[in-house]
Amino acid sequence: MDRSVSSSVEEGPVYTHQTMRLEEGMALECGAHLAPLEVAYCTYGTLSASRDNAILVCHALTGDQYLAEPNPLTGKPGWWSRMVGPGLPIDTDRFFVICPNVLGGCMGSTGPRSLCTETGKAWDGEFPPITMHDIVASQVRLVDYLGIERLFAVVGGSMGGMQALTWVADHPERVFAALPIATSPFHSAQNIAFNEVSRQAIFADPHWHDGHYRDFGAIPARGLGVARMMAHITYLSEEALSRKFGRRVRKEAATAIPAASSPSLFGEMFEVESYLRHQGSTFVRRFDANSYLTITRAMDYFDLAAEHDGDLSAPFGKCETRFCVVSFSSDWLFPTSQSRLLVRALNKAGANVSFVEIESDRGHDAFLLDEPDLDRTVRGFLNGAAEHAGLTREEAL
Amino acid sequence: MRVDQQLIAEMIPAKARVLDVGSGDGTLIDYLFRTRGCDARGIEIDMQSVTQSVAHGLPVMHGDADHDLAHYPDDAFDYVVLQRTLQAVERPREVLRQMLRIGRHAIISFPNFGHWRLRLQLLTTGRMPMTSVWSTPWYSTPNIHPCTIRDFLALCEEDGYVVQQWLAVDEDGLKAPWRRSIRFANLFGEQALFLLSRG
């Protein structure tokens, strides 16, 4: 194992990501063995001498490890830079924060773009199926590598919350506190349905080439863009869309075809259309279609109760982890009812649970946005848990 | 901390596992954790209070007595507390049953509908009484199941709960000297406080 700096050189400019490389790799749930294993990650703050102040932040489907620093690919601020930093709710003056890129991702961790040692070629469309347990197992290797026995907390929103729950289910003794936000203990039929439409959009793209688009020097940009557009709708709410865009119309035509003087069906464009197109086109520049398929499939497979004969409290039996479950009132992708189901199962398991439903009209995306009640909840829960864990500010210095 | 909360806290020994149903701003569980080393958790129906409590680092979940107690395992707690809420739940008898299933003891406080002022008002005016304790009119009150101290004792007897301790207090929670007579307590006590255990 060495702390090397790898680069993803396949497309566009070269980016270097801080990476852990494990030559022996790891076995996946499906039976395949991935070697070597690379996990790209960022860290913030300082690990205490007693190594007890580490917080693992797990990113969502299309997130990455650039949590609180500008993203080298997009130049945009880190995806949770409003939450993580000095003096912020996840306070890097106090905590050592680790954010890994998920297994199967495309920002430096082993994924479809990585080289398959057997074939000497990139995995591309042949990357083995992975599960949330595999993603967590790769993070366990990273946490081991960083010399951390027990994480003070695992925090994540959406698919990040699925990872947080999987961490506790698989390694209860290694997680003192868990903060799953806007998530669910299983991926619902509706969410699988949305993912399927996203995938079909990618498959329908003429540049898809059965997942080997890079051999053809192409990317299924239309398909991936449509996938993102549709998914993006599910991250918002009817109220948020109405508030942001309403029925406002832009001047430019909705089609690329130059409008003749004759009236055209798409002679003008609603602002919401323009917004979605922008979301789609910027996404394809930073995300790999095979990664999108791999990770959405891992989400679809996620169902903690099913692994225990339908008993959702079983994976949390006798765990000492303190939980804070957070949902948002307008989130229809991961609705409060699913969080409540989780909370009741945790109660049944006798776990210490806080549960807050935050009033917001911004839908699922709210966990990434300026929601003062979320900030207060995260800060308060972590401070309270730190007190119970016996963490002091001095130790963290 | 309110005086009646102080009285409740006095009933709970150090290190006990406590569930406060209707934990409000979390004062009682905070106090029990800090001064008694209790594993004290809360359930609260008002979301603002829940957020406020969690923001203070307290383990509080959004929920209510009628719907959330059933999900806890037997004997999950040493004490389950229900403050000034019994009269507002949908099914008081079931809530009591759940409290004494998940907890070895139950501590319940409720406003006493048998107080003389209420009796007198009903008698003299013929209308639903309104006092500082019962301060909302009949058509908008959340207190859908008012009871008197004697009513409550009768239910405990019927369901086989042991009354380990009881107090009648005035509105500010000060102990009142009617310990020896339930009838007097039922007439002069504005709030009642009971410590129950299973029979």
UniProtKB/TrEMBL annotation, chain A:
Main location: cytoplasm
Location in the cell: Cytoplasm
Pathway: Amino-acid biosynthesis; L-methionine biosynthesis via de novo pathway; O-acetyl-L-homoserine from L-homoserine: step 1/1
Keywords from the named record: Acyltransferase, Amino-acid biosynthesis, Cytoplasm, Methionine biosynthesis, Transferase
Domain of life: Bacteria
Function: Transfers an acetyl group from acetyl-CoA to L-homoserine, forming acetyl-L-homoserine.
Complexes and interactors: Homodimer.
Protein name stated in the entry: Homoserine O-acetyltransferase
Species annotation: Gluconobacter japonicus
From TrEMBL, chain B:
SUPFAM superfamilies assigned: S-adenosyl-L-methionine-dependent methyltransferases (SSF53335)
Domain of life where this protein originates: Bacteria
InterPro entries on file: Methionine_synth_MetW, SAM-dependent_MTases_sf
Protein name according to UniProt: Methionine biosynthesis protein MetW
Phylogenetic classification of the source organism: Bacteria, Pseudomonadati, Pseudomonadota, Alphaproteobacteria, Acetobacterales
